[in-house]
Amino acid sequence: MPVAKVKQTEKAPPASGPAGAYQEILEDYRPHAAALLGEILERERELGCTFGEDPVPTALRPHFLSPRQTAHVQRVTTAILGCIEKVGRFYFDHPEARDFIALNDIERSLIDINPHMSRIVIKSRLDGFFHGVADLKFTEMNCDSPAGMAYCDIQEAIFRGADPMKEMRGAFKFPVLNRTARLLTALLAAFRDAGNGTEAPNIAITDWREVKTNPEFALIAAEFNRRGFRTVIVDPRDFDFHRGRLHAPDGTRIHLVYRRVITREIAEKEQECQALIKAARLRRACLANPFRSKVVANKSTLAVLSDPEFKTLFTPPEREIIRKCVPWTRNFAPCSVSRFGKKWDIADLARRRRRDFVLKPADGYGGQDVHIGRDTPAREWDAVIERAFGANWVLQEFVPPPVDFYPVAGPRGLLYRRFNVNLNPFAFRGRFGGCISRLSLSPIINVTAGGAMVPTMTAAPK
User: Fold this and answer.
1) Ranges of the chain with pLDDT below 70
2) In what order do the strands lie in the sheet with 231-234?
């Protein structure tokens, strides 16, 4: 997929509201842009806000939302998460629905482990494009193992302490929202919901030891420990299960597992993760998210939400929010679909209306193997169609990402670069819990794929 042509300017582009006010303040720092960015990145490194060994890439301005925008994001995020829970319950209550979301036998055995919780999704992150005040569309839903909340908390604290933001506080209020604290509250609520008592549980954060996001686990563990909850980081292969109890390698008994490793990868290494799986199956440890969150993490959930065939699952207000916030999505498998006022064979629709669609694996993540029709040559697109058809992919309406100029450090000082912007609201037990924002020169936006992250702040005029 070709990277979008870079557009940049040394002159501050027109902007209003808090972004305009921030740009005016930043002009005083124009010759020192590189030093300012260097201070932010060095502070990230000092505080452990790193991806692997490198500071999380960022720009020189937060993503500001107005109180009205934040209220809209909060309202639709909560509503969409309610709809996602309905899709999950439908899957488990109706055996005939199981073929709609493709899973292998090992994945099915994992999701069939009943966590005895009232919710399927404890923590989630929706990936959306936000135009204007109320035009928000969610193109992906990370409901299995979302990341980024501690990174964003640290980034926000760093930006708040920087001189430009200190000057901004003369005209704007910036409410503080601790995403990591909300994560802990949600995990503890899930633990109690699963039938456990009120004693403080020992917590394990689990993912493979080699992943580059391990520094974020350390940030979260430090916050949880600071709040009085013994927390350790454990590779899923290193748990021990004996005498009916789950233990970390250092002998700590584990009651609650904050699962960061994705379900698909546990299934791929099932034999190496038997201690964790057994503890979940026998209810000797509470997993959040439970393995069954994998069902609604699949992009086929977007097809359920946007397909009129399933409209009776949702109330009229929910259907209206889905109509506005979920792009047209279908499983890319043999079927007829209605689009643009007529019936189509879905493969023929993808081929003839290439510029209107995106093809991506239903079970993919990290921006991998996403193909945007308008950016893909016709011959290459036809090859993707052949590879994807009937192979657990989805065809989705293309949603243009919003673009904005963000200040960065250029060779001669301050430089404004045109980025595609992705807004990612978190939800904890279905309730809005703040956002992160990601920037990219490519319309496929992912920090692991070469993008950047900036804190998302609500700016309320004083």
Assistant:
1) 1-6, 447-450
2) 231-234, 203-206, 256-259, 286-288
Residue 368 CB neighbours (<10 A): 12
Pick the closest to residue 203 from 182, 224, 179, 177 (CA basis): 224
pLDDT of residue 4: 42
Rg of the chain taking only CA atoms, in angstroms: 22
Sign of CA dihedral 403, 50, 251, 197: negative
* Interatomic CA distance for residues 347 and 313, integer angstroms: 27
Residue where the block lists tokens 């005498």: 243
- State how far Cα 100 lies from the chain centre: 23
How large is the greatest C-alpha to C-alpha distance in the chain, in angstroms? 67
| Calpha distance 361→384 (Å, rounded) | 11
Place of tokens 């989805």: 394
Q: Return d(Cα 166, Cα 170) in angstroms, integer.
A: 8
Strands (E), 70-209: 123-131, 135-142, 172-173, 203-206
- What the block records as the tokens of 86 is 């309905």
CATH topology of domain 328-397: Dna Ligase; domain 1 (3.30.1490)
What does the alpha-carbon distance between residue 244 and residue 246 come to, in Å, rounded to a whole number?
7
Query: What pLDDT, on the 0 to 100 scale, is given for residue 285?
Result: 97
Q: Could you give the C-alpha distances from 312 to 87, 96, 264, 306, 330, in angstroms and in order?
A: 11, 16, 30, 12, 18
> Which residues make Cβ contacts (< 8 Å) with residue 263, sequence separation at least 6?
107, 110, 111, 144, 145, 291, 293, 294, 297
d(CA 180, CA 236): 22
| Mean of per-residue pLDDT scores for the chain | 93
Q: Exposed (0-12), middle (13-18) or buried (19+): which is 434, by Cβ within 10 Å? A: buried
Supply the pLDDT for residue 449: 58
Orientation angle between helical segments 149-161 and 214-226, nearest 10 degrees: 80
Task: Kindly give, in sequence order, each residue whose CB lies less than 8 Å from that of residue 99, ignoring residues fewer than 6 positions away.
Answer: none
- 227 by DSSP, 3-state: which? coil
**What does the H/E/C string look like for 281-330?**
HCCCCEEECCHHHHHHHCCHHHHHHHCHHHHHHCCHHHHHHHHHHCCCEE
Are 431 and 15 in contact by the 8 Å Cβ rule? The answer is no
Exposed, middle or buried, 176 (CB in 10 Å: 0-12/13-18/19+)?
exposed
Q: Where are the alpha helices (DSSP H) in 12-66?
A: 17-26, 33-47
Q: What is the rounded CA–CA span in Å between residue 31 and residue 409?
A: 9
The per-residue pLDDT for 450 is 62
Which residue ranges make up each domain of the chain? Answer: 328-397
As to burial, measured by CB atoms within 10 angstroms (0-12 exposed, 13-18 middle, 19+ buried), residue 32 is middle
**For residues 69 and 235, what is the distance between their CA atoms, to the nearest angstrom?**
39
